[in-house]
Each structure stands twice: as structure tokens, then as C-alpha cells.
Amino acid sequence: MTSKPHRLIWIDTETTSISPRDGQLLEVAMHLTDMQGMERIEATAEAVAWRWIIRHDAIRLTPATAYAITELHSRNGLIDDVFGPESETPDSATEGIHDLLTDLADRYVLHPAGTNVQFDLDWIHAALGLTLEQLDYHHLDMSGLRILARQTIPNWPKHPAGTHRALDCLTRDIAEYRTIIDTIKENR
After folding, report:
1. Rounded to the nearest 5 degrees, what angle is found at the Cα of 122, between the Cα atoms of 118 and 126?
2. What tens-digit pLDDT sequence spans the chain (188 residues)?
3. Nearest to 169 by CA among 130, 142, 147
4. Nearest Cα to 26, choosing from 121, 70, 90, 75?
5. What pairing do the DSSP bridges indicate for beta strands 49-53 and 25-33?
6. Could you give the CA distance from residue 66 to residue 35 in angstroms, rounded to a whole number?
7. CA 16, CA 60: separation in Å to the nearest integer?
8. Which helix (H) or strand (E) holds 96?
9. How far apart are CA 77 and CA 33, in angstroms?
10. Burial of 136 (0-12, 13-18, 19+ CB in 10 A)
């Protein structure tokens, strides 16, 4: 029996609030890499990055959602995109995410990764009802790695805020993860 290779499935969500009770899920992105954070495209030209913009009939503006809506997602274009032609219904996004993770889990052991990845998993579960049973319970959390890097690597830069768009956040996280790995290897 051949064991499946391990992969990192980088996950990011963009929301209108910290809590699913108070806000709405706007965007989900995923990016598949090997355990070193490098893209590995097998014999086929399969995609390694995916994004779902979740359509809403209305965006609820409350004290809990005001900052994310007015300061982040109106400025970065996500609110417009939620009402645009590339957005999809929550049911369609749920089906797409489920099918993607099921397909990938048939081939790989999938370790969720990202900045505070449990936040993203909780949002996906709460907003879309996905149990995410395809994912391994071992997570890679960039928040913890950033704290470690700042404490152990001289002059480690504070991570930039970025655009608050899901694929951009994942690109930043993966690049920083690779830099951490390279720095550790150099200092062995």
C-alpha cells in the first residue's frame, strides 16, 4: 500500500466580522503546496489555487461589521465583487469547496495552513456548513511561526497587512513560510 504524500492546503477567508454570529463570509481561497511551501504540479496541469466569492443579497452594516466593510472590503473591491458576475451562491461555493477537498484528499494528506487557520476553518464551517473531514487535524499556523521568527531571528520584519483579499493573503503567507524555512536551513 502506497501512502499518500502530505500537502499543505493554504486557506484564507475574508469576512465582515470576527465572529460568524455577527458577520458574513465574503471570500474563500485555497492554495495547494508541498510541505516546504513549494507548488508541485503533477503530470497534469492542475490548478494549485482556487477562489470563491460568496454572493449576498445585502451586506449587513452593524457596529461589529463597520470596520471590515468600510475600511477594508469596500476599499479593496470585495464588496463590489460580492454583487458582481464572478460571485456565486453559498450553495455553489459549498459544493465547489467540498468537491475540491474530496478530490485532493483522495490523492494527498491535506494539512490546513494559513494565518490563524482555525479562524478560517470555523468560518467555513459556520457559514457554509462544511465539516471539512477531508482535512488532517495537524494544522500549520503562520501566526505562531511569526511569533517564533520575531523572537529568534534578528530583525525579522513584521508581516504586512496586505490587501485583505484571500489569494493575496495566501501568497504572502506562503512566501513568508518559505523564508522561515530557508532561514532555519541557513542557520543549522
Report:
1. 175
2. 569 999 999 999 999 999 999 999 999 999 999 999 998 655 455 678 999 999 999 999 999 999 999 999 999 999 999 999 999 999 999 999 999 999 999 999 999 999 999 999 999 999 999 999 999 999 999 999 999 988 888 888 887 778 999 999 999 999 999 999 998 888 77
3. 142
4. 90
5. antiparallel
6. 37
7. 8
8. helix 90-107
9. 27
10. middle
Rounded to the nearest 10 degrees, the angle between the axes of helix 166-186 and helix 142-152 is 40
Query: Cβ(125)–Cβ(131) under 8 Å?
Result: yes
pTM of the model: 0.94
List the grid coordinates of 78. Answer: 470585495
